[in-house]
């Protein structure tokens, strides 16, 4: 029983009407949930180190704050519109059936208005307070996620997360352009790191919730392909990710801290993915297969890689 339901029952027992009481805090919490803050945290983790590298040190605090606020608003707007469009399948999945649009805490119309407002607001915020290059990239990320991924790819192809993941790569370009006003080859390679990282990050989660996706009619790769095929593609994307991370080194904008870290954490994550593939070939399943170990490991990998990227400009031999 939720707190709102409990308040409603107590009120009804006292002879009042039966309308559930909503507090300002619960409404705010529901709107924040629409933005998917836990996903945004991961996106912002990649933005700040990229800004440090682009600046060769600390950019101004105001620029960091303005970029992060704009990035949060943009990602929040895209995530809200994603929930608006996906509310039918969210209601069919155990993992998502408690989202505000499914429970009725927020109406579809209110969510649509909120998502559009955040999207427009983020573009104007970045354009006026950072630069219009960053604003254009943020708007592009919103359109990629809402239109390209949610509306076109997600329900039609098993490669949805591969190409739809492009939107999640945009924060590094936004962070770099916020500092320099341009996009360099280093930023492009960081983009590719996240692009190739996305499948081995998301497919283990889709494996765990494959029945959910099947019930909702979403053709995630683990739903429509064999585990062996999925594991093979995870290995391929992992090695392409590591190659992209190492290709940054010869460009000369990073030092030994990033170089050593990229090799070490790349080898560690490759081990996790290969071990997962071996378990698949042995026919293991459930906890013995351990898809969530790879999922959580992917988050640790990306965090450690970008922490090293953030530290690197401040350490010299």
From TrEMBL:
The keyword Transcription regulation does not apply. GO terms for molecular function: protoheme IX farnesyltransferase activity. CDD domains: PT_UbiA_Cox10. It is a multi-pass membrane protein. Belongs to the UbiA prenyltransferase family. Protoheme IX farnesyltransferase subfamily. It is found in: Cell membrane. This is Protoheme IX farnesyltransferase. Keywords: Cell membrane, Heme biosynthesis, Membrane, Transferase, Transmembrane, Transmembrane helix. The gene is ctaB. Its EC number is 2.5.1.141. It is an enzyme of class 2 (transferase). Carbon 2 of the heme B porphyrin ring is defined according to the Fischer nomenclature. Pathway: Porphyrin-containing compound metabolism; heme O biosynthesis; heme O from protoheme: step 1/1. It catalyses: heme b + (2E,6E)-farnesyl diphosphate + H2O = Fe(II)-heme o + diphosphate. The chain crosses the membrane at residues 39-55, 61-85, 106-126, 132-153, 160-179, 185-203, 230-249, 255-277, 289-311. Converts heme B (protoheme IX) to heme O by substitution of the vinyl group on carbon 2 of heme B porphyrin ring with a hydroxyethyl farnesyl side group. Its main location: membrane. Residues 1-21 are annotated as: Disordered.
């Amino acid at each position: 029983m939720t707190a709102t339901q409990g308040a409603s029952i107590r009120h009804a027992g006292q002879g009042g009407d039966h309308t559930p009481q909503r507090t300002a805090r619960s409404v705010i919490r529901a709107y924040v949930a629409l933005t998917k803050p836990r996903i945004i945290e991961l996106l912002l983790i990649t933005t700040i180190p990229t800004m440090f590298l682009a600046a060769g040190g600390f950019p101004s605090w105001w620029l960091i704050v303005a970029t992060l606020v704009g990035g949060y608003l943009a990602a929040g707007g895209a995530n809200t519109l994603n929930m608006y469009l996906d509310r039918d399948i969210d209601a069919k999945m155990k993992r998502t059936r408690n989202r505000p649009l499914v429970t009725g805490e927020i109406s579809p119309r209110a969510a649509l208005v909120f998502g559009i407002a955040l999207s427009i607001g983020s573009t104007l915020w970045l354009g006026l307070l950072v630069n219009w290059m960053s604003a254009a990239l943020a708007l592009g990320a919103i359109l990629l996620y809402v239109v390209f991924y949610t509306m076109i790819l997600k329900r039609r192809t098993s490669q949805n997360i591969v190409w739809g993941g492009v939107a999640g790569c945009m924060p590094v370009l936004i962070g770099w352009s916020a500092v320099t006003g341009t996009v360099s080859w280093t930023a492009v390679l960081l983009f590719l790191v996240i692009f190739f990282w996305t499948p081995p990050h998301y497919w283990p989660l889709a494996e765990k919730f494959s029945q959910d996706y099947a019930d909702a009619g979403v053709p995630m790769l683990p739903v429509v392909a064999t585990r062996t095929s999925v594991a093979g593609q995870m290995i391929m994307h992992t090695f392409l990710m590591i190659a992209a991370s190492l290709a940054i080194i010869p460009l000369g904008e990073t030092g030994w801290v990033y170089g050593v870290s990229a090799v070490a954490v790349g080898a560690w994550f490759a081990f996790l993915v290969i071990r997962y593939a071996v378990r698949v070939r042995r026919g293991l399943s459930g906890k013995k297969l351990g898809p969530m170990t790879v999922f959580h490991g992917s988050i640790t990998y990306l965090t450690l890689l970008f922490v090293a990227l953030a530290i690197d400009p401040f350490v010299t031999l």
